[in-house]
Amino acid sequence: MRMAAQDENSWRTQAFRQSVVAK
């Protein structure tokens, strides 16, 4: 496992933006 703290935050932010844009 690498330091997923930043990675997770990053991909969550992108997924969140994509979710918002999807709508």
Mind sketching the topology for me?
Layout: H1 4-22
Biased composition (Polar residues): 7-17
Region (Disordered): 1-23
Explain what you see.
- The chain has 23 residues and is mainly α.
- The chain is 83% helix and 0% strand.
- The chain contains 1 helix and no strands.
- The chain has one helix spanning 4-22.
- The longest helix is centred in the middle third of the chain and has 19 residues, at 4-22.
- It is rod-shaped, with a radius of gyration of 10 Å.
- The termini are far apart.
- The mean pLDDT is 80.
- Residues 1-23 are annotated as: Disordered.
- Residues 7-17 have a biased composition (Polar residues).
What level of helicity do the residues show? over 70%
The helix count comes to 1
**Globular, elongated, flat, extended or rod-shaped: what is the shape?**
rod-shaped
Main sheet: strands, sense, barrel: none
Order of helices and strands: H
Kindly report the average pLDDT value.
Answer: 80
List the quaternary state of the chains. single chain
**Class by alpha and beta content:** mainly alpha
The low-pLDDT segments are: none
Give descriptors for this structure.
83% helix; mainly alpha; 23 residues
Brief summary:
This protein is mainly alpha-helical. It has one helix at residues 4-22.
